[in-house]
């Protein structure tokens, strides 16, 4: 007799990104997962060793260590808002706890696609209804304000966006930001902005949405910016009243984030930690140039120009899923564009956050497959 699973997970499968990853050989070059494959900065390794030797690791307050919450508030130039911070087990738990706190069964949540696949899955698991607003693929994935305005007529509870974008690596123009904020303000919509890639800028620093709207929650963490994915330290920050129920949800989801990781995150957000980010961005810039040199020299594939993160979105103009599956069998993991929304069909996301030798090896296979399409 087969045990019946809950309606929350019925019909929800592993993302296409993970399915491709699982199908590849164990020694495949990973251009697919959203993880920078560089070691954590040495000073953070040393700090972790020191903490293990000198600290007793008990539970922390549910919302996180006061010192870390203060450091996060300072990171957004709002030292007075320590009570508006909740530290979580990664940015994804911050998203889950935030949506848990604000959507009920049947509530609609707008997502701008293409976007991180977990958004839709989490909304559906919580009984919400994801409402896709497709960015204009024919126009460099710009936001069409008329499409957003039509979605607002559905009376959504929240609007969830990724800024900078995963998978595009792009940022919104000032005009687009104003359209988003005014749409939320006029329709009393909670705006949740996932800014986990904001620190990884290829050019000029990218300003946060923080402070632009009163019903705003910012989600972020140190996983991407400090190569700390395995430490699982994220956060949500907003006004104290908005964050208060999120702390309660977080308590019952996981009690608190790991004590050691929280203490290490304090160092990650220090002056020395932010200096290490400059070196990381320089490395990512070099890798981006390597990618573009190889792709421009070898193919005529259209690539969306990123402003941040460590992704390239390629228009392969063929079946993206079949192509990603074929690449995986050839030892290179990529992400099919449709994993991020149907307007990503025919596109492919690659990650360039890995060592040059492996990056060039993966790109060599990719280019050889592309020219045969």
List the helices and strands and how they pair.
Elements: H1 16-23, E1 29-30, H2 42-54, H3 66-75, E2 85-88, H4 90-102, E3 108-113, H5 118-125, E4 129-134, H6 145-152, E5 158-162, H7 174-186, E6 190-194, E7 216-221, E8 234-238, H8 240-254, H9 259-268, H10 271-298, E9 302-304, E10 311-315, H11 320-329, E11 332-333, E12 335-336, E13 347-351, H12 356-370
Parallel strand pairs: 1-11, 3-4, 3-5, 5-6, 6-7
Antiparallel strand pairs: 2-8, 7-8, 9-10, 10-13, 12-13
- Classify the beta-strand content into a percent band: 15-25%
Shape verdict: globular
* Structural class by SSE content: alpha/beta
Question: Average pLDDT across residues?
Answer: 96
- Low-pLDDT stretches: none
Total count of helical runs of at least 4 residues: 12
* Percent in helix: 40-55%
* Count of individual beta strands: 13
Question: Major beta sheet, specifics?
Answer: 7 strands, mixed
What gap, in angstroms, lies between the N and C termini? 46 Å
Secondary-structure element string: HEHHEHEHEHEHEEEHHHEEHEEEH
